[in-house]
Design goal:
Layout (H helix, E strand, L loop, with lengths): L1 H15 L4 E7 L11 E8 L4 H16 L8 H10 L10 H11 L3 E11 L2 E10 L5 E10 L4 H17 L5 H13 L9 H15 L14
Parallel strand pairs: 2-3
Antiparallel strand pairs: 1-5, 3-4, 4-5
Length: about 220
């Protein structure tokens, strides 16, 4: 029993230590991105629930794009306007709907971020920048990666599972193993990203927007 649990924990720790990401993107050729003086991230959709995690992901995109010279409207201001204008959630997740929001916000472009998969350690992500005037996509990027789990999360899940097994009147390997897996694979649901998750999501975001054209010429590194 103990040998099985130790083996499972070692395997989980090994997996937790591995984090990777890959991404690609495409922008409209010849478009003058310097004309975009301000952007609004209209919504973060998909398998991440709750404003805490959505705000964190939105802020990570904002940080990376500000490095490229873009300015942003705060998410709280966008949410207030959406509520005031009585936009429905389904209205703002399409290109045309997001463009309408952009017109009300008086910005030339908006962004939609989608997390189609966030299960356990694995996350898929896509983002697109939309022209407010006609609803066309100016840039789109996709990426995926392992968000990572800390050792403390895994050991905490194991401890909780073992305690649960004892309270239940048994200590079978199946019960403990099931508790560990359940505790680790739970995901963020409506909670904020953990520091380790945020670190790995930051890497995925950085890879996704890496080739997005900068609004201003980037400073050359002195030799």
């Amino acid at each position: 029993m103990k040998a099985v649990c130790i083996s499972v924990l070692l395997a989980l720790v090994a997996v937790a230590g591995c984090a990777s990401s890959e991404a690609e993107s495409q922008a409209v050729v010849g478009y003058d991105f310097s004309a975009i003086d301000k952007i609004a991230i209209v919504e973060v959709t998909g398998r991440v629930y709750g404003d805490a995690a959505k705000n964190q992901i939105g802020n990570l995109f904002t940080l990376e794009l500000m490095k490229k010279g873009y300015r942003f409207i705060e998410r709280k201001d966008i949410q207030a306007l959406l509520k005031e204008q009585e936009f429905q959630a389904s209205d703002i997740t399409t290109n045309a709907g997001a463009a309408e929001v952009g017109k009300v916000l008086n910005v030339p472009a908006v962004m939609l971020i989608d997390i189609p998969r966030y299960k356990g350690e694995k996350m898929d992500m896509s983002a697109k920048m939309i022209d407010v005037e006609d609803g066309t996509i100016l840039w789109i990027g996709t990426g995926s990666g392992k968000t990572g789990k800390t050792l403390s999360t895994i050991l905490g899940a194991a401890a909780g599972a073992a305690a649960g097994a004892v309270i239940a009147g048994g200590d079978s390997s199946d019960r403990v193993l099931g508790g560990v897996i359940g505790g680790v694979v739970g995901g963020v649901a409506g909670n904020a990203l953990s520091p380790d998750q945020e670190k790995q999501v930051r890497k995925v975001v950085a890879d996704v927007v890496k080739d997005l054209p900068a609004r201003i010429p980037q400073a050359q590194t002195s030799k």
